[in-house]
From TrEMBL:
Coiled coil: none annotated. PANTHER family: 2,5-DIAMINO-6-RIBOSYLAMINO-4(3H)-PYRIMIDINONE 5'-PHOSPHATE REDUCTASE, DIHYDROFOLATE REDUCTASE FAMILY PROTEIN (AFU_ORTHOLOGUE AFUA_8G06820). The keyword Hydrolase applies. Converts 2,5-diamino-6-(ribosylamino)-4(3h)-pyrimidinone 5'-phosphate into 5-amino-6-(ribosylamino)-2,4(1h,3h)-pyrimidinedione 5'-phosphate. InterPro entries: APOBEC/CMP_deaminase_Zn-bd (IPR016192), CMP_dCMP_dom (IPR002125), Cytidine_deaminase-like (IPR016193), DHFR-like_dom_sf (IPR024072), Eubact_RibD (IPR004794), RibDG_C (IPR002734), Riboflavin_Biosynth_HTPR (IPR050765). This is Riboflavin biosynthesis protein RibD. Pfam families: dCMP_cyt_deam_1, RibD_C. It comes from Maribacter orientalis. The keyword Oxidoreductase applies.
Length: 367
């Protein structure tokens, strides 16, 4: 499925004249690394480029989790490996130095005799944290760190947040009407439980694309009871996110979509009686007498969910805003007018991006 329509607002031309040679190649690393979005987690989505005589002779990005890392894919793409001994490797994040699902990338770089390595960021993961750089330098490599550091930090924001703040990268998302409501009053709904759309089909497709990019999606009880959402991918292809549902007293009916068993689902509840649990669902007991956002962050950290979209409802979203636990807010304003209903959350932030999507306006805020 083409994503040209959905990503056109992010493809503004970059004036390369203002960048150094090293920065231009690092930009290419960032560009190709995005091919791993939604598939590499919990590994970072790294991009790597190999340059010989000012020509790219190899490039690669991190394979889906369990597969080869970016550096390995870049090296394997080089047709004449003898050139590696006179080449420069560019990579967005410090090469790993430990055995995980795959051998250490730093060892392969040394083995292939690559004399110069240009790195965007030091890896904050405790198993790397400078050890990859140290291994390369001890082998005689000329290592540079910090090229396009800010841009690499933005690219690796999910990975960095997870390992430096010990919580997932949190994206708040909602749609509101022109007059500021996120849901209508119940009398406007039909008897069948289903979403009441505020946005147009193009915006809804974009949301499904977003879901394919993040490993988790979180909603509260009232959102499920009102909309009976599927929280899956229907208008995009990819891996559906893990559903995290807040259901304090297990009041959501068993026949609702979130219990269909088609993707991993975690129910957060205070009910400890496992006799009330469904077989294909994971249950986590939380203390609802204290702040939920921090408990949910700890839970997602334990589950290795590095980023999450919080899609509702107002109470759940506002609890994260009030706890100052959010990194982005993606807010659609549709053409609909409700006059009465549930008011949209209140949030203050810096406008990172604004774009018109047919009849809808999308605003992305950061704290």
């Amino acid at each position: 499925m083409s994503n040209n329509n959905l990503d056109s607002h992010k493809t503004a031309a970059i004036k390369l004249d203002s960048f150094s040679t090293d920065e231009k190649y690092m930009l290419r690393c960032i560009q190709i690394a995005k091919n791993g979005l939604g598939t590499t987690a919990p590994n970072p989505m790294v991009g790597a480029v190999i340059v010989y005589n000012d020509q790219i002779i190899g490039e690669g990005y991190t394979s889906a989790y369990g597969g080869a890392h970016a550096e390995v894919n870049a090296i394997n793409s080089v047709k004449d490996i003898t050139l590696l001994k006179s080449a420069t490797l560019y990579v967005t994040l410090e090469p790993c130095s430990h055995f995980g699902k795959t051998p250490p990338c730093a060892d392969l770089i040394v083995k292939m005799g690559i004399p110069k390595v240009v790195i965007g960021l030091k890896d904050p993961h405790e198993k790397v944290a400078g050890n990859g750089i140290k291994k390369l330098e001890q082998a005689g490599c000329n290592v540079q760190v910090g090229i396009l550091k800010r841009e690499c930090e933005e690219h690796h924001k999910r990975f960095l947040t997870f390992y430096t703040k010990k919580r997932p990268y949190i994206i708040l998302k909602w749609a509101e009407t022109t007059d500021g409501f996120i849901a209508p009053e119940p009398t406007l709904r039909g008897e069948k439980k289903k979403p009441y759309w505020i946005t147009n089909t193009r915006s809804r497709q974009l949301v499904h694309k977003w879901r394919s990019e993040e490993p988790g999606i979180l909603v509260g009880t009232n959102t499920v009871l009102a909309d009976n959402p599927q929280l899956n991918l229907r208008d995009w292809t990819g891996k559906p996110p893990t559903r995290i549902i807040i259901d304090r007293t297990l009041k959501i009916p068993n026949e609702f979509h979130v219990f269909d068993g088609k993707q991993k689902t975690i129910i957060c509840t205070e009910v400890e009686d496992a006799g009330q649990y469904l077989d294909n669902i994971t249950y986590k007991v939380l203390n609802f007498e204290t702040s939920l956002p921090q408990q949910l962050c700890s839970l997602l950290n334990e589950e290795q969910i590095q980023s999450v979209i919080i899609e509702g409802g107002r109470k759940t979203i506002e609890s994260f805003i009030e706890s100052n636990l959010w990194d982005e807010a993606r807010i659609f304003k549709g053409a609909a007018i409700f006059k009465k209903g549930i008011k949209a959350p209140k949030i203050k932030g810096v406008i990172k991006e604004q774009v018109q999507i047919s009849t809808d306006q999308l605003t992305i805020l950061t704290p």
